Amino acid sequence: MSVSLDTLRFRTTQMGAALALVVLSACGAGNATAPLDDMTADQIFARAEQQLASGRQDDAAFTFGEIERLYPYSEFAQRALVMQAYAYHRDEDYENSRASAQRFLDFYPAEQDAPYAAYLLALSYYDQIDDIGRDQGLTFQALQALRTVIERYPDSEYARSAVLKFDLAFDHLAAKEMEIGRYYLKRGHYAAAANRFRTVVEDFQTTVHTPEALHRLVESYLSLGLTAEAQSAGAILGHNYRSTEWYESSYALLTGQGLAADVSGDNWLASIYRQVLRGEWL
């Protein structure tokens, strides 16, 4: 999930002629080892850009930060702050990337690069949630930060990407619930398993995990002797996901016990079936 220089580099094209002048200024400076205190803001910025292009992200992050220290009121200080967040992100120093991006948003909330800073802030959480087995606190934080980009900057170039990543992070949470539910189911803790699968059906119904969650509910409820709930789960599965392997497995389980995949009784799944699928809002 790492960001690439080509796709997420800080708005280089929008900096236009100003950035070109920066590079020329750096060439004019000529001395790559000159003390930063003796350089102008544009020369320091150019050095940081060169460090970033050569893969020295940590050095670049430091150098961008020095612009804020030495020239806090220059136009380069604002640009350097968001570039520092990007350099830290490329270095996979997500904590410092978040700090720099948040500082930019605190100081320059209305500037044109605020959407990019907000997107970097979200990425600093999102790019750490690969492992389903990890604590899901980062996933929740990524969802919140991505939602900020989507809602606050809907017309920005980052909104579309934020939507896609939001959906993936949302799916990630559902996958975690499924993992825990399967763990309980395998060990015979059927009530605990059913609670996890119910969460997926109720809170993550738009994810790809819903068909399996319904099947696992059939398994769990049959094991608990709750046949009405098992039949209702099978009915929803048959209504929405009849062509899946999960429906075939549930159908075999139910018919094997002389039961039909049909709504039975008055339970939470039967309510979902009647209200959502049949439109009977009682």
Automatic annotation (TrEMBL):
Q: Span of the secretion signal? A: 1-34
Gene3D superfamilies per UniProt: Tetratricopeptide repeat domain (1.25.40.10)
Q: Does the keyword Transit peptide apply?
A: no
Gene Ontology terms: cellular component: cell outer membrane
- Keyword Membrane in the entry? The reply is yes
Q: Which UniProt keywords apply?
A: Cell outer membrane, Membrane, Signal
* Database matches in SUPFAM superfamilies: TPR-like (SSF48452)
Show the Pfam families listed in the entry: YfiO
**What HAMAP family does its record include?**
OM_assembly_BamD
The identity of this protein, by name, is Outer membrane protein assembly factor BamD
